[in-house]
Amino acid sequence: MRVREPRPRLKEWIDRRVQAAIGGDVQDSEGTFVHYWLKNGQAIAP
């Protein structure tokens, strides 16, 4: 199976998109999954 072959590229793409949302480079970032994912993560972190 070649399922794991594209994984590094996918992780890089996700990292770039998350960083773009954090950096304010994404229009209407408050409407994205990443915004709520990060917001919930901050609420849980000590």
What are its keywords?
46 residues, mainly alpha, extended
Shape: extended
| Helix and strand sequence | HH
Largest sheet, described in full? none
Mean pLDDT: 87
Please render the helix and strand layout as text.
Blueprint: H1 7-23, H2 33-44
Give your account of this protein's structure.
- With 46 residues, this protein is mainly α.
- The chain has one domain.
- Helices cover 63% and strands 0% of the residues.
- The longest helix is centred in the first third of the chain and has 17 residues.
- The protein starts with 6 loop residues before the first helix and ends with a helix.
Outline:
By secondary structure, the protein is an all-alpha fold. The chain has one domain. The chain has two helices and no strands.
